[in-house]
């Protein structure tokens, strides 16, 4: 939890990007020893960390969702808790509960797993809606309210949730309000042939996850998060982000477009991505690259579009091909 | 294949709409100025076809070939019409006006054909043609009514115009990704389109039968009365204003001593203040042009509003969610004004060199210099083939450029990266950066023609 450099926050503008790029490189190299062949997913998770955003990882079982979340938690010198969601999980199991201590004859608060820096919510769609809703306050306001007592969550705070899109029996789809609170949605997909062979070779004896060390302290991460907000976003580029968000609301195949929160999230993610690439300003390419992971899970397509087999990713690509980029010419 | 068919349908529809309004304008001019003796009307309009073919052939070719091709075709066409005009002028007998009308119409038809070859076939193009054509047709019919001409086949012409618009808009929209032409229910949509076309024709026929000359006359007389009422009200308001304003006092002139006649004795003060005739003529032309422009703008706004309302009704959306769809005409006008502005700017910049302390005309700051070089790079590239699409980022465009010009890929990257820093980082570059960009730009300009990029070049990107 220590701050590594007391003068880090006084870093001048142009020197911000190299610091963040170096930290991103450290994080990527460390996580990559356990999670093989997923550089983009690791980068996106670091982007979410820098933006203090939450990540939803959706894919079929056995492709490394939980492993990625655990490797992330181990690479940070932060507290880590895991919630395994089941239909009988109660909100008090997540946020905590007051229990009566017979010795002191007083109620004592027993904190839930959500009071940690990194929280892995495994198979989130298996929890009941009331339990899912207990996460709303944590995700947006970064606080929990138990029996009229409101407590702040430790910072940095990040929820990494996983869900399986195949098995739908006994699951409860996440409400839009909750989906909108996830900054990014990642899909991992199956690894390539070479990567799969490397996974077999590396996990032959013992899991590299056990040997992972933390490479980023909580204090350092907090400072880097503050530095990221100083990455420059020009006025025309802000207009471009707004134009992309608004275009999703006008598309005939989209019933519910992107929210203002998503436009804010896209801007913050672009700042983080630019910094990870060693730039102290955002490019339209960052917007194009991050539009899909930031916006796709927030869109609701019309029934007609679904029947035509169109996907959110396709529509976002179409929109990006239609919204003019602010440039000369 | 479907996209090509849709594009061809869009071009055909645009050409059909142009033929409708241009033909009606020509007819009106012929009636008014040519005495109804305009020869070869269809041949005049047919000039658009070779112009279109030449334009298509010239598209994507190197500038020199394109110029040769367009100049040779245009030259032949112009020579034919100059001969016709000269023969008309030599024959005399009141055919001069006809000859000039034919020449002007041939030039407009040629220009329209070339333009159609160069613009992308899209719904916006069809919509723009519809808006402009609607204005032209309304203006023609209004003028014809004022001059008591009866346009032949007006009902058929208007029905064809709307039919062209309907089919053009349907096919170009259907050819877009996810459009109905690419869906499984293509046949049903085609049947609906056919039904609508029949409906338009039937409505046109009904209107022709229903709107009799008497009805039109009554409508026009009503308009005339309204106009007279408005003019009367305006005159009354002006008279009232003139009454309440103080009258100017004319100073009495003191006669010269000794009873000598003064030079100005022959005329009064108002005569001295009278403007020369040529200035009055210019002023009249200016005022006339202003009112005509105002009238056209009003018609344009009206047509835009009608089109927007139609789109809103079809899309069942609210006004807030209505996406703006710039038409071809608006784009053309904007491009024309932009070029004109750039031309004027360049001339002013050239003149500034001769002013004391002006020096070579150049951008004021380093950032402006880098942006100017990038603009020049875009123009340079567009002349050689690659054109940046509006949704392309400079980096995406750099990929295209490097594939096309691999020998100067590093220089292109240098210019693009500095441009990005200036445009998106809003960083004012130093003189060294500007010099580097200038050096890179110099090398790019001198680079030879195209060469296919090798795998190494692609990998470098």
Task: Tell me briefly what this model is.
The complex is a heterodimer of chains A (329) and B (461). Chain A is an alpha/beta fold and 329 residues long.
Q: Please, could you describe this protein's structure?
A:
The complex is a heterodimer of chains A (329) and B (461). With 329 residues, chain A is α/β, with parallel strands linked by helices. Chain A has helices at 13-32, 39-50, 65-75, 91-95, 129-141, 176-179, 193-202, 218-228, 235-250, 260-276, 284-295, 303-307, 312-322; strands spanning 55-58, 76-77, 80-84, 96-101, 106-111, 118-122, 143-146, 149-152, 158-163, 184-186, 216-217, 254-256, 300-301. In chain A, a hairpin with a 4-residue loop joins strand 4 and strand 5 (106-111). The relative contact order of chain A is 0.17. By secondary structure, chain B is mostly helical. The longest helix of chain B is centred in the middle third of the chain and has 39 residues, at 277-315. Classes of the chains: A alpha/beta (329), B mainly alpha (461). At the A-B interface, helix 9, helix 11 and helix 13 of A face helix 13, helix 14 and helix 15 of B.
Q: What distance lies between the first and last C-alpha atoms of chain B, to the nearest angstrom? A: 32 Å
Individual helix count of chain A: 13
Number of strands of chain B: 0
Helix content of chain B: over 70%
What is the makeup of the main sheet of chain B? none
Structural class of chain B: mainly alpha
User: Strand portion of chain A, in percent?
Assistant: 15-25%
Please state how the strands of the largest beta sheet of chain A are arranged side by side: 3-6-9-1-10
Low-confidence stretches of chain A: none
Overall 3D form of chain A: globular
Tally of helical runs of chain B: 17
Q: What layout of secondary structure does this protein have?
A:
The complex is a heterodimer of chains A (329) and B (461).
Chain A: H1 13-32, H2 39-50, E1 55-58, H3 65-75, E2 76-77, E3 80-84, H4 91-95, E4 96-101, E5 106-111, E6 118-122, H5 129-141, E7 143-146, E8 149-152, E9 158-163, H6 176-179, E10 184-186, H7 193-202, E11 216-217, H8 218-228, H9 235-250, E12 254-256, H10 260-276, H11 284-295, E13 300-301, H12 303-307, H13 312-322
Helix pairs in contact in A: 1-2, 2-10, 9-10, 9-11, 10-11, 11-13
Chain B: H1 2-34, H2 41-46, H3 48-58, H4 63-91, H5 96-118, H6 123-146, H7 154-174, H8 186-210, H9 213-244, H10 269-273, H11 277-315, H12 328-352, H13 366-384, H14 394-404, H15 409-423, H16 431-445, H17 455-460
Helix pairs in contact in B: 1-5, 1-6, 1-7, 3-4, 3-5, 4-5, 6-7, 6-11, 7-8, 13-15, 13-16, 14-15, 15-16
């Amino acid at each position: 939890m220590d701050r590594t450099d007391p003068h880090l926050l006084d870093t001048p503008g142009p020197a911000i990007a190299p610091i963040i790029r170096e930290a991103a490189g450290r994080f990527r190299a460390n996580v990559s020893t356990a999670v093989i062949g997923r550089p983009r997913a690791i980068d996106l998770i670091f982007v979410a960390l820098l933006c203090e955003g939450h990540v939803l990882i959706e894919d079929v079982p056995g492709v490394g969702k939980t492993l990625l979340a655990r490797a992330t938690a181990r690479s940070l010198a932060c507290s880590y808790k895991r919630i395994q969601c089941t239909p009988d999980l109660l909100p008090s199991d997540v946020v905590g509960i007051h229990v009566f201590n017979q010795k002191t004859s007083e109620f004592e608060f027993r904190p839930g797993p959500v009071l940690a820096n990194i929280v892995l919510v495994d198979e989130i769609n298996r929890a009941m809606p009331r339990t899912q809703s207990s996460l709303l306050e944590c995700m947006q306001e970064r606080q929990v309210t138990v029996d009229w007592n409101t407590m702040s969550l430790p910072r940095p705070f990040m929820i990494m949730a996983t869900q399986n899109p195949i098995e739908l029996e006994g699951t409860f789809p996440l409400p839009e309000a909750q989906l909108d609170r996830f900054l990014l949605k990642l899909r991992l997909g199956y690894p390539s042939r070479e990567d799969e062979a490397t996974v077999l070779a590396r996990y032959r004896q013992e899991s590299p996850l056990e040997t992972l060390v933390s490479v980023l302290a909580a204090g350092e991460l907090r400072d880097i998060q503050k530095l990221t907000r100083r990455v420059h976003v020009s006025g025309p580029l802000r207009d471009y982000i707004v134009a992309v968000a608004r275009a999703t609301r006008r598309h005939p195949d989209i019933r519910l477009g992107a929210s203002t929160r998503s436009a804010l999230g896209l801007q913050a993610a672009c700042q983080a991505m630019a910094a990870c690439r060693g730039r102290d300003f955002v490019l339209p390419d960052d917007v194009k690259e991050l539009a899909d992971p930031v916006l796709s899970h927030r869109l609701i397509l019309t029934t007609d579009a679904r029947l035509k087999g169109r996907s959110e990713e396709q529509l976002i690509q179409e929109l990006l091909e239609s919204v003019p980029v602010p440039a000369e010419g | 294949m479907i996209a090509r068919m849709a594009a061809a349908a869009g071009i055909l529809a645009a050409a059909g709409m142009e033929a409708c309004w241009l033909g009606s304008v020509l007819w009106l001019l012929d009636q008014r100025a040519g005495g109804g003796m305009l020869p070869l009307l269809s041949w005049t309009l047919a000039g658009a076809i070779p112009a279109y073919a030449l334009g298509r052939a010239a598209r994507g070719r190197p500038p020199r070939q394109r110029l040769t091709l367009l100049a040779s075709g245009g030259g032949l066409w112009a020579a034919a019409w100059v001969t016709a005009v000269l023969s008309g002028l030599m024959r005399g007998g009141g055919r001069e006006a006809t000859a000039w009308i034919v020449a002007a119409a041939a030039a407009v038809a040629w220009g329209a054909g070339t333009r159609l070859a160069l613009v992308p076939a899209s719904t916006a193009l069809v919509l723009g043609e519809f808006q402009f054509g609607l204005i032209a047709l309304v203006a023609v019919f209004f003028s014809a009514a004022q001059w008591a001409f009866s346009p032949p086949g007006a009902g058929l012409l208007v029905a064809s115009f709307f039919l062209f618009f309907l089919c053009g808009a349907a096919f170009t929209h259907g050819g877009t990704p996810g459009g109905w032409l690419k869906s499984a229910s293509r046949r049903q949509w085609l049947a609906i389109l056919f039904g609508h076309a029949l409906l338009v024709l039937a409505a046109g026929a009904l209107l022709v039968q229903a709107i009799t000359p008497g009805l039109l006359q009554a409508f026009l007389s009503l308009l005339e009365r309204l106009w007279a009422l408005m003019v009367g009200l305006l005159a009354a308001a002006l008279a009232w204003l003139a009454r309440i304003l103080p009258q100017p006092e004319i100073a009495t002139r003191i006669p010269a001593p000794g009873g000598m006649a003064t030079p100005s004795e022959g005329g009064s003060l108002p005569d001295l203040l009278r403007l020369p005739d040529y200035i009055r003529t210019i002023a009249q032309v200016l005022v006339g042009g202003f009112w005509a422009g105002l009238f056209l703008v009003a018609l344009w706004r009206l047509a835009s509003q009608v089109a927007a309302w139609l789109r809103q009704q079809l899309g069942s959306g609210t006004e807030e969610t209505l996406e703006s769809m710039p038409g071809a005409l608006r784009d053309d006008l904007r491009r024309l004004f932009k070029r004109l502005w750039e031309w004027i700017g360049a001339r002013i910049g050239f003149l500034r060199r001769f002013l004391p302390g002006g020096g070579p005309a150049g951008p004021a700051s380093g950032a402006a210099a880098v942006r100017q070089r990038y603009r020049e790079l875009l123009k340079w590239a567009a002349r050689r083939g690659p054109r940046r699409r509006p949704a392309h980022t400079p980096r995406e465009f750099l990929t295209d450029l490097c594939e096309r010009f691999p020998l100067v890929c590093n220089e292109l990257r240098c210019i693009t990266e500095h441009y990005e820093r200036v445009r998106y980082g809003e960083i004012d570059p130093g003189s060294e950066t500007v010099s580097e960009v200038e050096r890179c730009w110099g090398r790019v300009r001198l680079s030879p023609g195209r060469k296919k990029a090798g795998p190494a070049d692609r990998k470098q990107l």
